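Protocol step 4 of 6: structure prediction from sequence.
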Amino acid sequence: MSVKAKYQPVLDLGEQLGIKDGNVTVEGDILKVKGMAKTQYEKNIIWDKIKEIGGESPSDIKANITVEDDSVYHRHTVKSGESLSKIAKHYYGDPMKYKQIFEANTGILKNPDLIHPDQVLVIPNL
């Protein structure tokens, strides 16, 4: 299996996330991937996929993924049935961090228990 075929799920994920300035080359047995993610969260998703396929320290891929907006961890569009604690658990692994999300969004949120579908929330860097 070629190194590009091995990491095809990473390349597919990059396309799904809309990674900008993507460049993929193969040099010998090493896949070189370059691009810009919108947020740190998206960069982390790419790296998680790389590690899932190649292990913690893969030697057959070199990735240079930069972040377009490092002022936030991510921007999340609220879906029906979500709560700030559910969103906090998704991004931080801790539902109690909903307070940080609320504080970062006081311009559009007045009550942490009241969010609406299609609102775009800032998920702050912690």
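Step 5 (inspection) to follow. The two ends are 40 Å apart (CA to CA).
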